[in-house]
Design brief:
The protein is of the alpha/beta class and 172 residues long. It is 45% helix and 17% strand. The protein contains eight helices and six strands, in the order αβαβαβααβαβαβα.
Length: 172
């Protein structure tokens, strides 16, 4: 849950995701996305599936695509970094549109110094993979959520949407 007295934008993220046609959400917990996971899990418009490994989210969402079910994977940044092989082997090879929502751990606003490496390496890795991504830092950025999901379908590849701490846990 968000820190008391601080606004989180989970409801707006869920609305944008629904408008873009997503039906299944596979997630692995991260402290920043606990509130967002809770919203997806209790919203009847989505089937929420908790997974035990981030690679399982990639596999589940890929299988959902082949069944005609629009899906997205939701995870922390460090978990995303463990999925490189699954993304390139499955999603790139079979041209699977796959929105992946991640935290921007290690970025400005993260209070955990052990996530600094995520902030240092995440963007260069995304660029090295030629993996399109967008970042959501403020409510004004929220339309980019649906746009990224639709772009994933257009290019038949994954697209990453990274959420700042302020958007997921509230600003300090």
């Amino acid at each position: 849950m968000p820190d008391s007295g601080k606004q989180d934008f989970s409801a707006a993220i869920v609305e944008e995701t629904s408008r873009a046609g997503i039906k299944l959400v596979a997630s692995l917990p991260d402290g920043w996305i606990a509130g967002l996971i809770g919203r997806f899990a209790t919203d009847a418009r989505f089937r929420h599936v908790p997974v035990n490994r981030e690679e399982s989210a990639i596999g589940l969402c890929s299988g959902a695509f082949f069944s005609g079910t629009p899906a997205l994977a939701l995870m922390g940044a460090s978990g995303f970094l463990t999925c490189i092989y699954a993304i390139t082997k499955i999603s790139y090879t079979y041209q699977i549109p796959l929105p992946i929502f991640i935290t921007l751990r290690g970025d400005i606003g993260d209070k955990a110094k052990y996530h600094v490496s995520n902030g240092l390496y995440l963007r260069p890795i995304l660029e090295a993979m030629a993996l399109p991504y967008t970042e959501i830092h403020s409510p004004a950025d929220m339309p980019l959520v649906g746009r990224a999901i639709r772009h994933s379908r257009t290019i038949a590849r994954p697209v990453v949407v990274g959420f700042s701490r302020d958007m997921l846990r509230g600003a300090d």
